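Practice problem: predict the structure.
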Amino acid sequence: MGAFSELANGFATALTPENLMFALLGVLLGTAIGVLPGIGPAMTVALLLPLTRSLDATTALIMFAGIYYGGMYGGSTTSILLNTPGESASVVTALEGNKMARAGRAAQALATAAIGSFVAGSIATLLLALVAPTVANLAVEVGQPDYFAVMVLAFIAVTSVLGSSRVRGLASLALGLTIGLVGIDATSGQQRLTFGIPELADGIDVVVVAVGLFAVGEALWTAAHLRRRPVDVIPVGNPRMNRSDWRRSWKPWLRGTAIGFPFGAVPAGGAEIPTFLSYVTEKRLSKHPEEFGHGAIEGVAGPEATNNASAAGGMVPLLTLGIPTTATAAVLLAAITSFGIEPGPQLFDNEPELVWGLIASLFIGNAALLLLNLPLAPVWAKLLRIPRSYLYAGILFFASLGAYAANASPFDLLLLLVIGALGFLMRRYGLPVLPAIIGVILGPFAEERLRTALQISNGELSGLITPFSTMVYAIVVLVLLWPLVRRLLPRKATVPVLADAVHEIEEAHSHSGTTDAVSVEARARKGAEKPNGSDGS
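Answer:
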């Protein structure tokens, strides 16, 4: 009963007028942002980081969590009505959702997405409340060598899953680790990579890095590829479902929750892979497989439930280990550290009000999402009529204002421009942003754990080896060798649909908001029709 009593205290925190107002504001803002292609929750949270430093840490994180959940749902609206995913995780929703909309069933598609998100998010948040304290208690027993091994696993896993190649993922991670090294070495007192510039002696503020890589980099990239095209929104009434829709949706909601939560908790995930897996699962289990490709409601219900369950699952490693699994979670981690709070297993003991208030606010945010999105879905779609040139000009303005306000330093504006240009180049050459931001945030913590472990063992590398760390390093080796093992497997043992899905995920990460779901579906089907002797990956 300990978790439930703590959760009750969390509701007392989350339901204070100020926290409740910011939770609702976050959900509202997150949904609006999720609707707009190319402007995801990660960019929004990064943009607001400097502006929330005057707020209480708990209040700010409650608002950011609302943005996270709202953004996850908002992308489904444009996926269904415009065939344009607002988020890369909403690519699968567009496959069947837009077909339903064109067949005059947009209301049913929007309803099953909203209700499925609520059901999956509520169940997954309850699992988070039950699982996270146990994980945190186990993590407290983990020593410095073990913690370093877990961070190495996070580094390798995130570079192996995201990006068009592992080499690019590692290059992005190396950039982040290098930025994290800038400043004065805490052990020796020597300056590192400061190049004689006094302003760099304290290191580069993680807020400036997050805003530069996400907001400025994305704004510059979108501006460079700006295309004016008319937006035709499919009209829709109040979202509603009949008895048949309910009967065909409730099982996909539950299966999507079961798939999304564990995938979200893996330090390499995100919602993209599990949503594709959910789609394939529903297609195989459906009593109406002939409807897939023509507007099957199961193809919307399952992936949307998976999407939100994955978001809650991602909170488990973030709150218990201080390890993010998605770009938005990485920026949330940056927010935690910017308030002077050390992430990790001690967070539940040191900041119980923050942690449990945050978890309780997820329940409130889920209910608010349902109440907002059922009647207001057509209104959200109209946001797409905002000219992109105005939108991204505003983003650059607020990014610059926020970066300057963080430390009132003109030098931070120069840093913001340099890091924004770096973010643009990373997108230009296909380097994923997430490994870089994880390197910036976790790099110093990993270095601290490594040094502590070596100091305890008097510099002996054997001090890094424990039974737990050995198991973790074995997993690291398996992750590194998996591409070679996959090539040695018989061709008939591969799953072409999922193999092509991974490629689509990589494209979605690089071009979120510009992905055409029709081309996604066509390429996935082409891969599924390949003979066993061909290369399906």
